[in-house]
Amino acid sequence: MKKRMSGVLALGLASLFASASAQAGDWVGQASYYAHRGRTASGAHVGALTAAHRTLPFGSKVRVTNLHNNRSVVVTVNDRGPFTRGRVIDVSVAAADSLGFRSAGVAQVKIEPIAD
C-alpha cells in the first residue's frame, strides 16, 4: 500500500509540474514538419511559416527554437496536431528548413508564445 501511495504521489507531482510548465507558456519536446495539402483545421492553408499545435488558439505566434543548433523562427498556429506521442508541434517545411532539421525529420525544440 505504501509503494502504491508513493507512486500516486509521484504521478500527481509530475502532472502538477507539467501543467505549471504549460501554464508558464513554454513547451519543450520534439517538433516535426509536414507538407499538408488542402485546408488546415482553421480553414487556412499551410503557409511558409505556419504550425500545428494541439491547444494554442489559431493565429497565435510562437517562437520555435531548435535546441541542437539554437536556430529559431516565429510561426503562426493555423492547424491542430501533432498527433504523434512525444511531439509538441508540427511546423511547415519552410520553418523546418529555417530551423535546420528538415533532413533529420524531427528536432528537440523549445516553444515560446509571442505576445501580440
Structural notes for this entry:
- It comes from Methylocystis hirsuta.
- GO terms for molecular function: lytic endotransglycosylase activity.
- Keywords: Cell wall biogenesis/degradation, Lyase, Signal.
- This protein is α/β, with parallel strands linked by helices and 116 residues long.
- It has a single domain, classed as Barwin-like endoglucanases (Beta Barrel), CATH 2.40.40.
- The chain has two helices and six strands, in the order αβββββαβ.
- The chain has a six-stranded mixed barrel with strand order 1-5-2-4-3-6.
- A hairpin with a 5-residue loop joins β3 and β4.
- The chain is globular, with a radius of gyration of 16 Å.
- 28% of the residues are buried.
